[in-house]
Amino acid sequence: MQPRTYRCGLDAAVDVIGGRWKALILWALHAEPLRFGELKRKIAGISEKMLIQALRELEADEIVHREVFHEIPPKVEYSLTELGQRLNTALLPLGDWGEENMAGIAKRRGVTPAPPHTASA
Predict the structure, then answer these.
(1) Residue 67 forms beta bridges with which residues?
(2) Is the pTM of this model over 0.85?
(3) pLDDT > 70? residue 121
(4) β partners of residue 65
(5) DSSP class per residue in 29-84
(6) Which residue has the higher pLDDT, 113 or 47?
(7) Among 13, 27, 45, 57, which is most exposed with the fewest C-beta within 10 angstroms?
(8) Which residues lie across from 80 on neighbouring strands?
(9) Are 79 and 29 in contact (CB under 8 A)?
(10) Residue 35, CB-side half-sphere exposure with 13 Å CA sphere
(11) H or E element: which one contains 114?
């Protein structure tokens, strides 16, 4: 198998946030660190398996920080690294574009949009 080659910065960025869930995880973590269960509740429709996989990949890319608190019961929190915060800032215009065009996109795709500003992510 040939090693991957990035053609441009967008290619590299999309590789990091590609898939259905990673951008939503970043969005959910923008305000504060969250525990696994809190993240799962904020991201409607994600399975535990997919959340674990996406978090591991984001951690490997140094976008998300996983902190284990050695207490009983054990506690793990996820937060954005500085790199993750910068990536989230870069996603803000994309989120704005999506908000502005959500109704039309939903209509064309046969999807029901959430009411404004109440989406879970």
Answers:
(1) 77
(2) no
(3) no
(4) 79
(5) TSSS-EEHHHHHHHSTT--HHHHHHHHHHHHHTTSEEEEEE-SSS-EEEEEE-HHH
(6) 47
(7) 45
(8) 64
(9) yes
(10) 8
(11) none
Select the more confidently predicted residue: 1 or 20: 20
64 burial (CB, 10 Å; 0-12 / 13-18 / 19+) is buried
Tokens at 20, concatenated = 């259905």
Half-sphere exposure of residue 23, counting CA atoms within 13 Å on the CB side? 15
Q: Are strands 75-80 and 34-35 parallel, antiparallel or unpaired?
A: antiparallel
Answer for the pair 65, 79: CB distance below 8 angstroms, yes or no: yes
Tokens (6 digits) for 62: 């140094």
C-alpha pair distances (Å), 33 with each of 29, 80, 91, 108 = 6, 7, 18, 35
Phi and psi at residue 76, in whole multiples of 5°?
-130, 130
Q: Is the dihedral of CA 38, 61, 91, 4 positive or negative?
A: negative
DSSP state of 116: T
Tokens encoding 9: 């910065």
